[in-house]
Amino acid sequence: MIRAGRTLTRTGRFVRDEAGAVLVLWIMSLVAVIAFVALVFDMGRVQVTHGELQSFADSVALAAAGELDGRADAIARATAAAAEIADSNVYGGDGTLSGAGDYTLTFLTGLPASDTAAITNGYFLESPYDSADDAAARLVRVQVTPVSNNMNFLAATRALFGSAGGDTMATRAEAIAGFTMEACDITPLMFCVPNAGWRAKANIGQNIRLRTGGNGASWLPGAFGFLDISAAARGAACAGASGTKELITCMIGAESKRTQCYAQNAVKVEPGQKTGIQNDAYNIRFDLISSDLKDLKDDPNYTAAPNIISGRVRKKNDACVFDNPDPTSPDTVALPHDDCFYDVAGCTPYARFGNKTWDYDSYIDTNYGDKDPNTPYDPDTEDPIADYIPAKYAGTRYGVYLGEILYAKAQNGGVAGGDILTDRAETGYPQCGIASTDPERRVLIAAAIDCSSFEDDTSDTDKNNLPVIEFVELFMMEPVGEGTGTGSAKSFDMWVEVIGSAGERGYGGAGDGGKFRDVVQLYR
Fold first, then answer.
1. CA atoms of 65 and 75, how far apart (whole Å)
2. Per-residue pLDDT tens over the stretch 268-324
3. Is there a single domain that holds both residue 443 and residue 463?
4. Is residue 2 assigned to a domain?
5. Domain range enclosing 121
6. Quick check: 56 and 97 in contact, CB under 8 A?
7. How far apart are CA 265 and CA 288, in angstroms?
8. DSSP class of 274
9. Which of 254-258, 332-336, 514-518, 519-523 has maximum average pLDDT?
10. Stretch 41-67: mean pLDDT, rounded?
């Protein structure tokens, strides 16, 4: 006999019994955990692969960018440098990253201002590349050939759930790097050289007659102008300058803190006769203070060089305000020009670049000789400077200038400063302004530029994106003359001597490392 009540009781108890329910949840959770572990494992391999590819892309980009110096074969050298980079990857591919088969190089002229903006066709250079592309290439983009990673665990998990999907994932990496030169605290000058192959090292001791270019004058070799300096790049000394004239006076005349470090990969050039730019600012170095700049006489940032022998004397009635025209010294001379500048034929082919031959004996005889025109010059008894000329600058006018400073120091008991010349109309040492202790006060640093593409352009328009061949150290041989023309945009000559390279693109550390440095960096 079956008792119905008892059966119903057991059924109700079974329905209410929760024992073992956690097993269902545990099994469901286990499946989720396995899926997550599979995802982590596979995605971890993808991340490792991406890191390896990105490291390879960065290395290739930096190696290639280091050759983009704007000179001949820059792109070919960049391509060869990229091929030298080798790396490896653990997952996917053949495990080796090396050579053009593992990446694609694209050369760019620039990048959009926004990092998130797409790179449009206007920035790309197209192969086959030529010399113009070598000069224009500023950056290189490296796109690594995608590597496929097997997603085995993820595929198994998908099969468990019955979902569709591939069992591989392509991993990609890209990098963009560029090259630039930074110039720090320099005089923002440029000058045109005879050709793109001209180098300062091969022309040390050459006398150049620089002539203002633009604004009615051509940009033939020897013409000079100014580099445009943005407000953000101004140094502490010039940060508060207002107006063109005040700013240029500071940029040219101040001794230091003129500019911060700013990129000089390609420069914007302004005419040398630009309105408001006058010759007075250059002559501060010679203790020649014009009436327009008399407020700078006691400014410690507008010093005179420790040697100012110039073959000129001051007007008796105005001791320290020195306006042109000025009297010529009766018994001293400035450092001579190269001989060819005195010849009827002149210095060929440009009449601006000398032959590195000049009359040392005549200079020494006039400034240090016995002043008797009937007595022949005797270098053994009348040349006190020769033993003080630094060997590095032997044969140059800059070497004589330095030797005269060292000679004066020796005559002054080892104390720097003091008169260089005695029994002459000028002493060679500043009498009005503050004397600098730095012999390089008469050294200008100017960007050497091949101006052949615009040499006949006599307009006063600026020239943009011009590649700099190198920065050149130029020694000012004498004060700048009054100039010709009317108004504030006068033409004038500046006589300088090449004394070395301050920094060549691609060789920032070989010149003046404190003023120039090559910068190779990743941009994206």
1. 9
2. 666 555 544 567 888 889 988 877 787 788 888 889 999 999 998 876 655 676 655
3. yes
4. no
5. 24-180
6. yes
7. 35
8. -
9. 332-336
10. 82
> Given the structure tokens 């045109």, which residue do they identify?
192
- Phi and psi at residue 489, to the nearest 5°: -105, 65
Kindly tell me if the per-residue pLDDT of 164 is higher than 60. no
Q: What are phi and psi of 442, to 5 degrees?
A: -95, 15
**In 3D, which of 189, 144, 160, 127 has the Cα closest to residue 49?**
144
Distance CA 371, CA 412 (A): 23
Tell me how many domains the chain contains.
2
Mean pLDDT, residues 493-512 taken together: 69
The three-state DSSP-derived secondary structure of 462-482 is CEEEEECCEEEEEEECCCCCC
| CA separation for the pair 246, 361 (Å, rounded) | 41
How far is residue 523 CA from its own chain's centroid?
18
* 320 and 291 co-located in one domain: yes
Residue type for position 114: S
Name 339's Cβ contacts closer than 8 Å, sequence gap at least 6: 354, 355, 357, 358, 359
Contact 339, 358 (CB under 8 A): yes
Nearest to 188 by CA among 227, 238, 244, 233: 227
Task: Spell out a b/e string for 478-488, using b for 16 or more CB atoms within 10 Å of the CB, else e.
Answer: bbbbeeeeeee
pLDDT score of 330 more than 50: yes
Number of neighbours of residue 8 by Cβ within 10 angstroms: 10
Q: What is the pLDDT of residue 127?
A: 77
* Structural domain contains residue 268: yes
Instruction: Report if residue 139 sits inside a domain.
Output: yes
Query: Same structural domain for residues 86 and 143?
Result: yes
What pLDDT is stored for residue 246 in this prediction? 78
| C-alpha torsion sign, points 511, 512, 516, 520 | positive
> Which residue in the block uniquely carries the two structure tokens 């990105």?
54
Distance CA 348, CA 342 (A): 12
Average pLDDT over residues 165-177: 77
Percentage of residues of the chain with pLDDT beyond 70: 73
Strand 443-449 to strand 189-192: parallel, antiparallel, or no bridges (unpaired)? parallel
| Parallel/antiparallel/unpaired status of strands 470-476 and 443-449 | antiparallel
Domain annotation covers residue 210: yes
User: Residue 180's beta-bridge partner residues?
Assistant: 519
Residue count of the chain, please give it.
524
Please give the Cα distance from 99 to 79 (Å, whole number): 10
**What are the E-state strand segments in 159-265?**
168-171, 174-184, 189-192, 207-212, 223-227, 261-263
